[in-house]
Structures are given as C-alpha cells and as structure tokens.
C-alpha cells in the first residue's frame, strides 16, 4: 500500500478566467497554481514549462491534440514578448490554429476577454 502524498497532474476540468498572475503562478476558480498553465477546451492544466525554455511542438503537444476545438492560441511568453519559432507556428497553422505571442500579462487579459465572448480560445501561459 503506497504511503505519503500522491502527486497528481494539476487539472481543473472546466474553463475559467484567470483572476491574477505573478509570483510564479496564477489564481483562477478560487484556486491557485504555482507554475505555468495551459488553458484548453478540456480544462486548465499545469504545464511544466519555465520562462526561457524553447517553445516547441513537443512543449505544446497537448494544444495540438485539442486543435479541433481551438481557433486561437494566445502564448504568454513571460515578462517580455518572444516570437514563436517558425516550426511551431507552422505546426499550429497546419491544424487551423492562429497563434498570437505576447507577454504573459497581455495574454491573460486577452484570454479573459475572448473567453467572456465564448470564443474558441486557448492559452499557453508561462508563469512570471
């Protein structure tokens, strides 16, 4: 019989606006999460990604898996805007997803507006 704390993948099974960000994490749906997030049609998922790591198709594999339900992917690239690599932009475009990189703060604000408009939006938010 296992002992101790069971660590599970962080997942909120719904769509919710992001209430706050900073100090290395986010607040949403009366919860807080330390680290980066993927906000997808299937819910809000913890994302093992840190500012400065290369953005690749592998890093966003879960986004690509849910591509049928996503029209726009907002990528919060951290404190500053970082352009997306061409290979990643091409992989997203091939699945019908428009990508828009911006600072994490701008991505949070844009995501909340698009979510309130019931748009088919997803966000990859790097913790700041």
What keywords describe this structure?
Hypothetical Protein Mth938, Chain: A; 128 residues; Mth938-like domain-containing protein; six-stranded mixed beta sheet; 3 helices; NDUFAF3/AAMDC; MTH938-like_sf; globular; three-stranded antiparallel beta sheet; alpha+beta
Q: What report would you give on this structure?
A:
This protein is an alpha+beta fold. It has one domain (11-125): Hypothetical Protein Mth938, Chain: A (3-Layer(aba) Sandwich), CATH 3.40.1230. Helix content is 21%, strand content 31%. The chain has 3 helices and 9 strands. The protein has helices spanning 61-65, 86-94, 104-116, and strands spanning 11-12, 18-22, 25-28, 31-34, 36-40, 43-47, 72-76, 98-102, 121-125. It has a 6-stranded mixed sheet with strand order 1-6-5-9-7-8, sandwiched between helices. A 3-stranded antiparallel sheet has the order 2-3-4. Helix 2 (86-94) links the parallel strand 7 (72-76) and strand 8 (98-102). The longest helix has 13 residues, at 104-116. The protein is globular, with a radius of gyration of 14 Å. The mean pLDDT is 93. It comes from Pseudorhizobium flavum. InterPro entries: MTH938-like_sf (IPR036748), NDUFAF3/AAMDC (IPR007523). This is Mth938-like domain-containing protein.
């Amino acid at each position: 019989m296992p002992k101790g704390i069971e660590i599970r993948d962080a997942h909120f099974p719904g769509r919710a606006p992001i209430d706050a960000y900073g100090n290395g994490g986010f607040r949403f749906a009366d919860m807080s999460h330390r680290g980066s997030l993927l906000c997808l049609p299937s819910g809000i998922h913890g994302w093992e990604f840190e500012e400065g790591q290369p953005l690749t198709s592998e890093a966003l594999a879960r986004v690509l898996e849910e591509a049928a339900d996503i029209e726009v992917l907002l990528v919060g690239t951290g404190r500053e805007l970082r352009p997306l690599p061409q290979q990643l932009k091409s992989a997203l475009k091939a699945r019908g997803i428009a990508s828009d990189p911006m600072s994490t703060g701008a991505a949070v604000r844009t995501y909340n507006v698009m979510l309130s408009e019931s748009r088919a939006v997803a966000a990859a938010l790097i913790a700041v």
